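Q: Hi! First time doing this. I have a protein sequence and I read that you can turn it into a structure. Is that right? Here it is:
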Amino acid sequence: MGNIVFGNLLWISVQPLIRMFLCVACGFGITKAGLLSAMASIGMGQVIINVTIPSLMFSTIIPSFHSSNMAELGPLVIIALMNMLIGITLSWIIKQLFWVPHRFRYGILMVGGWGNTSDIPISVATSVMAAAPFNGTDDENLAVGYIAVFMLVWSITLFPLGGYRLIIMDYDGPDLDNDRVKERLSTKHSKILSRLTAGFVYLRQIFFFSHSPVRELHTEVGQNSTGEKESPHATSTHENSVTTRHKPPEQEEIGVSTSTNEELPTSPSFTSILPGPALTGEAQKVFTTTTDLPNLPAGHVAVTHVHWFKKFIGLTSRFLRSAMTPPSLSIIFSFTIAIIPPLKALFVAGVPGTHIPSAPDGQPPLAFLMKTSTFIGNASVPMGLIMLGSALARLNVPRNQWSSLPLCAIASCAIGRLVVMPVLGTLICQQFTRIGLIDPSNNVLRFVCILVSGLPTASMLVFLTQVYSGQYIIVFISMTAFTTLTLGILFG
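A: Yes, that's right. Below is the predicted 3D structure, encoded as structure tokens:
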């Protein structure tokens, strides 16, 4: 591993996971003991969303970002969207291969697309950044600021852009029992297999036709320098005999003919330039009558424009209302303050090019707000992990019902999110580094970009957590290995 011993890398990697799971275990234990009710968990969740997470974002983004490193946000947004698309694609493939309950046919797409971009990555990143080879508090704040971009993309795509509608779509129409769903999937697999078989046979037909002796015979006749011609009867008899002799056996099964006197399919572009037959008077009349469109009145067009304008205004209004959540607003305001030096100097000392009078204690005038935000924000990650443990403690799946669960889909989603996506995320980050989108010397940015690709399903999606909570057990092993390899790539 070059500069760092493998044992040190392993300890740096496993330490944040131990701390994280101790917090989860506390939530699990007090819930099993009856000390944390479901209503108390709901209240704790409201505190996290509306108080602690906004405070954490505010206290970490403002001191970490400035106008010179704002360009790093572009690759973060691109990677966040790519991770989401990759996860949704993997879930869609799993849905085609394995059965999923009818009321979860779209929810499985959320399992792959929306990962836990808050509690787990912040816990791991801050713990790793606190020790060598990173630079302590400065890198901790920078890492949380980078993760905030992923949280913002997560929030905007889930609510303002309508990702939550996947849950609503699951409950459209009547429900189907699991046996019916399995039967439909089996029928679908049979149809796909038959189509693939037919396509393969069709390709063989094309291959045999392109290498048919009939075509060779036509070539030889066309190149005959003596100008001799066979009689039409002899040529026809010879071609029929050759065609029959080389006719593949699969032709009888799918009804494909290779007779040379049949026309081959032509492309639409080629067919469109061929001269067609002249239309008769009656046909021309019908053609003219059916193709002439009535002129729409101007009032109707104006009403249509007003309708679309109102619809656009309504969609924009709903988008803005959905985006006005405390975490999103905190992230947006924090980045705005961070890139405006006079505003940033009100909260943070030592901003170049500014001369803001200090408070009586020698600190910036609004430094007390920054300290308060830091104090409150420090409770965000422990509370979130305790809530995760509480949610896991409420799971109750009797052993006699395990056979009724979509075990193949559950296992495949866990492998996809915790094995396949980290590999793809590492490759994407390395490629972005090679082409210059990511600074090779910015190890904090590279670490965060790789880290967020190997996260389990978002714990905030409660019903998804109940079905796919096994990912949070596997993640202890997968993320330890993943973090070790990432540090090896960065500092090896």
